[in-house]
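Entry 14: structure prediction run for Leucine-rich repeat domain-containing protein. Input pasted below.
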Amino acid sequence: MDLDLMRDGAREFPEVPDPEAVTSARVWHCKYRTLAPLAALVNLRALSIATYPDASLELLASLETLEELEIIHLPPVRDLDPLSALKR
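Run finished. Output tokens:
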């Protein structure tokens, strides 16, 4: 299942009915305060983000099945080290 969120003006990340079924996600220029709910997408293989709101990439470290990651515009992030936990 694909999750495609484009230019959503909501401040909160939407509830995903079956997070384990999501294998790819695109979160593109949304106004969410945090992308922490992405950590629940445990079977995510591909993730594309434009405008990353969080100060740390730590929430992505638990995505063990992630094979492809694209992040565009991540101004609050100062450390890429959390991505070293990704195995693929």
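Notes: The mean pLDDT is 94. Will compare against the previous run tomorrow.
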